[in-house]
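Dear support,

I submitted the protein below through the web form. The confirmation email said the job was done, but the results page showed an empty box. After a refresh the structure appeared. I'm attaching both so you can tell me whether what I see now is the final result or a partial one.
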Amino acid sequence: QVQLVESGGGSVQAGGSLRLSCAASGRTSSIFSMGWFRQAPGKEREFVARIRRSDGNTYYADSVKGRFTISRDNAKNTVYLQMNSLKSEDTAVYYCAAVRDGMGQYDTWGQGTQVTVSS
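What the results page shows now:
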């Protein structure tokens, strides 16, 4: 089992920055990759970014490319999402998720952290 706990959300003005953290615990050696998703009120949850645990390979949604950076610290079992040049449309609950070896999909989720960007 793996547990994920997000932190770092909050309120910021448009153009500002926030850094989210996701700390993993439990059988962290079973994690293949980790990602960030977000869900705005009345909208479907959407993919934001992901990072592969082994080699740090990253992938981003077009909507955040160039503004957000995902990174990892395997020694701390933590993944980060640095969010710069925030826009009001980035307002959402942000969720951390993990793909465990052999699962083929995100099967472990954190509780979410709120990010609010005011214009």
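Response: this is the final, complete result; the empty box was a page-load delay. The first strand starts at residue 2 and ends at 7.
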